[in-house]
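FAQ: What does the model actually see?

It sees only this:
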Amino acid sequence: MNCRRILLSLAVSCVTILSASADGPPWDSKTQEVLCDTLRVRISEEQRTQLERTGEVELSDRQLALIREFYPKAVKTQFAHIATASDNMGGEEEPYLVWTSPDELSVTLLDEFLKNEEKRKTALTHEGPIYTPAHPVARITVSGRIYLDGKRIELPELLKLLHEKTLSSFAVAPPCRGGGAGYHSDDTPGSETYSNWEERRAAILLAVHELAEREHLNCWQEF
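And it is asked to produce this:
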């Protein structure tokens, strides 16, 4: 079964929306297309691994200098929202980074900030921990591996934690585009192909979906 189809199925029938009044994020969770002006930044394999396991990315000096052309006080370590999610971002209230594909981040460029020098200086300036979830978040990587608190776990453990209600949210890395050519992962054998990754991701998401339906669990996709 196609991984994107299962992502859509989860968004429609499994994911619990945290706030019914939210306007929704400025991207299409089915295509990972950002629906506003953006600055697109290529990321390294090391940065991708960091995003997969923690949700944060440490920008290179070159990347940071580029972003600071628009937001001059942006800090080096940033939390990145994931464009596979369809939860409650509440529209374009402030600039942020969006992880749109395994090797690319998009920085939202908002007129309200760009046309106001004082607001420009407040964008992407979070100090200390960039993002601290109120609950544990399981992270599913591009290659279909699962991480919790930076440590790799297997699918049975993920399902056990969901069943015990000690875990209720997960984050799904954006899928590869164009057949996955050129992508590598340090947590999978070199002989694996992109189709192996897609099948594994699909199996994880389907298992979570079926468990949530069977046990009426409140599972939601985290940013």
